[in-house]
UniProtKB/TrEMBL annotation:
Coiled coil: none annotated. It comes from Natrinema gari JCM 14663. This is Adenosine deaminase. Signal peptide: none annotated. It holds the Pfam family DUF655. SUPFAM superfamilies: AF1531-like.
Length: 198
């Protein structure tokens, strides 16, 4: 891996979920001392961030920003991770749409999840973590991918009987992982960090 590739892997990008031009409401400083703030979700691993923005930049919901490392940030001046419950109501309501867009825009990556999912234990498979996927659907997916890897969400829907909206199933699982921090298995949220720690 080249130095440029390694640097690119270390850059974490996020999508703005909420932009608060007048700063956070719980920030006790006077209005003139507050900088624009907001919330964002990581593109790669769906980590949630509270961010402060450069006052000279105007952002909109859906803008892409760099959150890590600090040296590569453009419009973000501060950033730290938060939980789902820490998000503003605006960010919470926007999250589902942004996650759905990210799954759609990165279709190959998420179709590969269906192609590459493995058993977690003798009784539990990664596919079973997805909402609505029981033994029958899991076996249908496994049988079909042995014949030939899936190429798209449409391909999955056509080849696996009973599997409707495979992209929406992934969105539901990602949102579940974001909302419930007590889940035993995290398949998508924080995945990049787990892989780097192995």
């Amino acid at each position: 891996m080249s130095e440029a590739d390694r640097d690119e892997m270390d850059v974490r990008r996020a999508v703005v979920l909420d932009y608060l031009a007048h700063g956070l409401s719980d920030d006790g400083r006077p209005q003139y001392a507050k900088s624009p703030a907001g919330y964002a979700v990581g593109i790669e691993d769906f980590q949630l961030y509270q961010v402060a923005f450069d006052e000279d930049e105007r952002l909109t919901i859906g803008s892409e920003v760099v959150v890590e490392p600090p040296a590569d940030r453009g419009v973000v001046t501060e950033c730290h991770r938060v939980e789902y419950d820490d998000l503003s109501s605006g960010a919470q309501s926007e999250l589902e749409y942004v996650v759905a867009d990210l799954v759609e825009e990165n279709e190959e990556r998420f179709v590969d999840f269906y192609n590459d999912a493995q058993p977690i234990t003798l009784r539990l498979h990664q596919l079973n973590l997805l909402p609505g996927i029981g033994k029958k659907l899991r076996n249908g997916i496994l049988d079909e991918r042995k014949r030939k890897p899936f190429e798209s969400f449409d391909d999955l829907s056509e080849r696996v009987s009973g599997l409707h909206d495979p992209d929406e199933i992934l969105v539901d699982r990602i949102l579940e992982e974001l909302r419930d921090d007590d889940l035993k298995y995290q398949t998508f949220v924080g995945r990049r960090e787990q892989e780097q720690n192995q």
